[in-house]
Amino acid sequence: MRYRRDEAFRFEFGEPLPIVFTIEEMNGSHVETSDGKASLLDISLRGMKICTSLSIPIDRQSNVKVSIQFQLNHNNYTIQGIIVWKKQRFTEYFYGIQFTTSSETQDALLDDLKIIGKRMA
């Protein structure tokens, strides 16, 4: 698991947003999991940090692909990504997700984040 945080901005939510995620692939093998509930803590155009009570078995050599569903500014998103880090604090698990999305999805995400940012200012 690699962890790089050199992005231009990271949008942090005052109140975490509810999200739903599924694991699609673990170490090259396709898997089907039930929906997991989590909270979206912050987001950028390249990734996000989430928090959940679910422990996903990963280590430095793991390659876990996830699909994440959430809503921003009344727009629904389904974004694929790879878990790049994991931290545990008490009974909660925090994960860093690196997106594997198209530039069109990133543009739509940026537009929605700008609208939300203007409302919060």
Automatic annotation (TrEMBL):
Pfam families: PilZ (PF07238). Residues 16-112 form the PilZ domain. InterPro entries: PilZ_domain. SUPFAM superfamilies: PilZ domain-like. This is PilZ domain-containing protein. It comes from Ornithinibacillus xuwenensis.
